[in-house]
Protein 1
Amino acid sequence: MTTKVLIPKTGMGTTEGEIAKWLKADGDHVTEGEVIVEIEMAKAVEEVTAPATGVLRILLGEGKSAEVYTEIAVIEEPMG
């Protein structure tokens, strides 16, 4: 099973975010609740935590921008 990692909506006027820094690399094991990426949004940096435990697969690289709720990575959860 995979879990999506999305750009969060942080305020009424927030429409997009830019990947400032991935704190984990593609293929790294992550634990639910751990901070995995920093997203620059409307003059602030938002830390996004892993919504599940598993292997991180990054879909959107650093310096790239996307609209809120865009899928920026997936976490592949172990079977069983």
Protein 2
Amino acid sequence: MVKRNIIEIDEEKCNGCSQCIPNCPEGALQIIDEKARLISDLFCDGLGACIGHCPQGAIKVIEREAEPYDERRVMETIVKQGPNVTKAHLQHLDEHGQKEFLQQALDYLAEKGIENPLDEKAEKKPMPCGCPGTMERDLRAERQEAKSSSEKASGKEAAKQQSELMQWPVQLTLVNPNAPYFDNADLLVSADCVPFANANFHNGLLKGRAVVIGCPKLDDIQAYKEKLTAIIKNNNVKSVTVAIMEVPCCSGLLQAVKQAVEDSGKGIPVEGKVVKINGDL
């Protein structure tokens, strides 16, 4: 083995908060037995993107004997996580001056016929779904009308569950931070998986709230922080509820929201809700 820079985790300081996990797109870290663990020398690039996200100061970069870093092997893992993670990884290499690894990554994308997310043309290209699917819609009046009709109904129709969604779109990447439904609203920031796990999502979490959804593991968490900051800063948001799954990587969404509220300069209350894998809140 050769000597190279690699991270080291102080188990006594680590509290298993998992804030480092979303910031390691290479997939070198996992939470095991309530502690952050370096699962493979092969995947750790030694650049320390995770260090700035450890509130306990439990991670540092050291030099030791380790299996050589293999960018092509890392890219096999990266591309499976989607274009946002791929972009974050490429930017990470570029910002740290790792031109050789960056070129290897770009070569890998070219060989596999995968679009380079850093390419300016790719950035400007229209979304595959086209404009109609992402067109902004305020559904509050429509929902109120449906509720009134339901209350007048009888029999089975009265018992029919109504959707509590009051706007479109809901994906955090797509929403307009200045959309009217964010003003004077209680905001729900939900992890993608929560509505699938929690059977009472509409009545228990979504009802009466504007909503945005995202995944801190697979999406660009920095872009999420910036969008959330804009939503909170540009509108009179009354409160923020964050619904996440109990899996470790999901906690990154709660941390992103807290940081966004802090960056907005507003003292808005943030409440976290955790949904278990079995669906219990």
